[in-house]
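can u do me a favor
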């Protein structure tokens, strides 16, 4: 199960949220707390599409992914656009597209629907049709991004660029991404998570043992670790 959510901060100066470059998209594995994606930019199609391409590579390796989002519908729509397949049941008519077998996307509809006209939206929803052979053992209580929300609280406490009510925000998007890359490496490969009592990369099976900060400085190409994940 992978949780998806966004985090917002200022970049250079205070602007409208739609024009800000400080939106950070995060994808976290729920069981191991491994961060699959952690990139910043404008909250547009490009930011979401790059993250969904990474999930497509994960789907090709595992064949079984459950993506849980907290109200953002673009996760499911772009993932469906990138890796949907045509279902051919042998019946007449145009075959419909579904998600690949073993892939599930659930989102929690946010906002009050008290004064909304027409039929009410379900609280938990699958935005696009899924393969009929995909198992659906997903309880409504599991459809949330609580673990990622807790991570956001920790990130605001540890990284000054995301700290509220201060002027210590990032000056440029590149500088902000550099801090995120460092945090991504330390979180996944160095620091033991306090709930799982394991380093996320070790819990996921990427490494046999955790890395120390001294060992990180001896690695000549740190992007090699990222690409092999």
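np, heres the sequence
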């Amino acid at each position: 199960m992978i949780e998806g959510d966004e985090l917002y901060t200022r970049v250079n100066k205070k602007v409208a949220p739609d024009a800000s470059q400080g939106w950070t998209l995060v994808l976290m594995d729920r069981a191991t707390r491994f961060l699959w994606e952690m990139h910043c930019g404008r909250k547009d199609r490009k930011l979401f599409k790059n993250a969904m391409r990474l999930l497509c590579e994960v789907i090709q390796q595992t064949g079984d992914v459950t993506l849980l989002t907290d109200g953002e519908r673009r996760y499911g729509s772009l993932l469906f656009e990138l890796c949907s397949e045509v279902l051919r049941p042998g019946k007449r008519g145009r075959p419909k597209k579904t998600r690949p077998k073993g892939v599930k996307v659930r989102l929690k509809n946010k906002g009050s629907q008290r004064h909304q006209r027409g039929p009410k939206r379900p609280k938990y929803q699958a935005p696009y049709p899924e393969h009929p052979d995909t198992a659906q053992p997903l309880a409504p209580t599991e459809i949330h991004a609580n673990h990622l929300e807790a991570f956001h609280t920790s990130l605001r406490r540890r990284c000054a660029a995301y700290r509220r009510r201060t002027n210590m925000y990032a000056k440029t998007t590149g500088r902000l991404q550099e801090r995120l890359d460092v945090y991504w490496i330390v979180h996944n490969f160095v620091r033991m998570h306090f709930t799982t009592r394991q380093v996320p990369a070790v819990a996921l099976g990427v490494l046999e043992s955790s890395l120390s900060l001294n060992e990180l400085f001896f690695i000549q190409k740190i992007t090699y670790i990222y690409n092999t994940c």
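The CA atoms of residues 88 and 112 lie 39 Å apart. hope that helps!!
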